[in-house]
Amino acid sequence: QVQLVESGGGLVPPGGSLRLSCVASGKIFSFSFMGWYRQAPGKQREFVAAIAGANTPTYVDSMKGRFTISRDSAKNALYLQMSNLKPEDTAVYYCKIDPYGWGQGTQVTVSS
Question: Are 111 and 87 in contact (CB under 8 A)?
């Protein structure tokens, strides 16, 4: 069974940057749906960004210009570059890659 492993989370001050990675233990396909979601304490999991095939990546409006999703099929990896982070970005971030499902999550904490 293919597993998805996220990394790259941590504690950063407001305005800082992080790059999240999601590496699959099996082959990923550029035509597949790949996305990032997040879940803050006491809140439901929410969509962050997604990429599929040759389509233009999609983002939640509040993250446009700050977050960039990308993939490297040769490395079976999905990335989320986050910049100008805000305290409200604090959450556990999850990747989702079809048809494999979800990763285990990586904690991002934005605090001074």
Answer: yes
Residue 19 Cα distances to 2, 15, 54, 98, angstroms: 22, 14, 22, 21
Contact between 48 and 59 (Cβ < 8 Å): yes
Tokens of 1: 């069974």
CA angle 92, 10, 57 (to 5 degrees): 60
Q: Which of 80, 75, 61, 68 is nearest to 8 (CA)?
A: 80
- Separation CA 94–CA 75 (nearest Å): 18
* Gap between the Cα atoms of 35 and 16, Å rounded: 22
Q: What are phi and psi of 74, to 5 degrees?
A: -65, -30
Dump pLDDT digits (tens) for 67-110: 999 999 899 999 999 999 999 999 999 999 999 999 999 999 99
